[in-house]
Amino acid sequence: RCDNSTGEKICLPNWYGVNCSKYCKEKDENSGNYRCDNSTGEKICLPNWYGVNCIKYCKEKDDNSGNYRCDNSTGEKICLPNWYGVNCSKYCKEKDDNSGNYRCDNSTGEKICLPNWYGVNCIKYCKEKDDNSGNYRCENSTGEKICLPNWYGVNCSKYCKEKDENSGNYRCENSTGEKICLPNWYGVNCSQYCKKKDDNSGHYKCDD
């Protein structure tokens, strides 16, 4: 309508702009949470509401329930530095020192051990070997050395393969890999057979 004195246009309710051609009706409900700019009629989201119709709720947090700010346009949560997860409540700070050797998963914030590091905080170092200095692989969770077949000892550098034939008759001690002769076999390679006797066929014992 027109002002009676000046003839200036006076927009009807909920209409805005130079020619009152912009419609906007304030809302604070499921379909929108905004007020209208007095001049242009543009939607102005109410506090903590975002998006085209201001239907995305986001309230910045930095406490036990979450650690994030809100994207100015969409209202999506943007985790603060070193916080991860749906509500940015998982803390993880990348490390490569005595207290840990890991990076953080971009989505979950779970620790991902750097190569050759294992354990809860990735502080157990293990690099697989198959040479003169050791013959082992690394356990996926703990990083403990697991000797390759027929290798024993602290660094899995002691070779022993069980035998029961002409060249030897022994098993291997589980920890050290030392040869343990089978019953009645003696010598360095357990290749000397001897069974003590005390009968008509002989009277002797065997030298250990």
TrEMBL record:
Protein's recorded name: Delta-like protein
Source domain of life: Eukaryota
Signal peptide start and end residues: none
Disulfide bonds: 11-20, 24-36, 45-54, 79-88, 92-104, 113-122, 147-156, 160-172, 181-190
Record domain DSL: where: 9-54, 77-122, 145-190
InterPro entries membership: DSL, MEGF10/SREC1/2-like
CC per GO annotation: membrane
Provenance organism: Nematostella vectensis
Keywords: Developmental protein, Disulfide bond, EGF-like domain, Membrane, Repeat, Signal, Transmembrane, Transmembrane helix
Gene Ontology molecular function: any one: scavenger receptor activity
Membrane disposition: Single-pass type I membrane protein
Cross-referenced Pfam families: DSL (PF01414)
Chief localisation class: membrane
